[in-house]
Amino acid sequence: VIDVLCGRLRWSGALVLTEALTCSLSSRSASQSDTAALPDRMPEGDSAGESIHGKPSAIGNFFKRLGQIYQSWLDKSTPFSAVRWAVTLILTAVYMIRVYILQGWYIVTYALGIYHLNLFIAFLSPKVDPSLLDDPDEGPALPTKQNEEFRPFIRRLPEFKFWHSATKGIVIAMICTFFEAFNVPVFWPILVMYFIMLFCITMKRQIKHMIKYRYLPFTHGKRTYRGKDDTGKPFAKET
C-alpha cells in the first residue's frame, strides 16, 4: 500500500511539474510574440499620432509654401543689387510721404531711423573687430602698399542682409501707420535733433575706428598691374 501511495504521489508531482513547465513555456512564447508584434504596431501608433498631432494642417502647408516662394524670390534677386536698392528707396519715399500727409507716427519713424543707423554701422564695421585682436596688423584691413597681400574687407553685416533688414523695417513701419495705437503724440523737432546728434556722434566714432586700424569698408576688387608698353619702333620692312 505504501509503495502504491508513493507511486501515486510521484505521478501527481510529475503532472504538476509538467503543467507548470507547460504554463511557463506558453507564457514565455506569448510574451515573445507580443514583443515581436510591437515593431509592427509601433509604426501604426506613430502614424496615428502623426495623423492627429504630427501632420501639419492646411494653414501650415500654406505658410510653408509661401515661405518657400518668398525665399526663391530672394535668391533670384541677389545679383540685382541696384534694382533692390531702388525698390527700397521707393518704399522709403512712399513711407515719408504717408507720414507727412498723416502728420503723425513720428515715434515709429524715429525708431525706424535708429534701426537703419544700427544696420548701417554694422555694414561699415569689419566682421572681426581689430581692437579685440592681439596684433592689429592681423585685422581685415586693406593693403596700404603696392606689394602687400590683397585682403578684402569682410563686413559684419553683408550687403544683402543689410538690404533685406532695411526693407523689412520699412514695411513694418508702413504697417504700423495703419494702427492708431502707434501714433504716440510727441514733439517731432526734438526727435529730429536727437537723431542728427546721434548720427554725427556714431559716425565720428566709426571714422576714428577706421583711421586707427587702417581699414576701408569698401572693396572694389583685386588690383591688377600692367607691364610697361613696348615703345620700341619696329624695323622697316624691306621691299
UniProtKB/TrEMBL annotation:
A GO CC term assigned to this protein in UniProt: endoplasmic reticulum
Record field: transmembrane: 82-101, 107-124, 186-203
Topological relation to the membrane, as annotated: Multi-pass membrane protein
Signal peptide: none
Top-rank lineage group of the source organism: Eukaryota
Keywords noted in UniProt: Membrane, Transmembrane, Transmembrane helix
Keyword presence, Transmembrane helix: yes
InterPro entries per UniProt: Rer1 (IPR004932)
Subcellular location: Membrane
One GO-annotated biological process of the protein: retrograde vesicle-mediated transport, Golgi to endoplasmic reticulum
Entry keyword annotation includes Transmembrane helix: yes
Family the UniProt entry places it in: Belongs to the RER1 family.
Main function: Involved in the retrieval of endoplasmic reticulum membrane proteins from the early Golgi compartment.
Protein's name according to its UniProt entry: Protein RER1
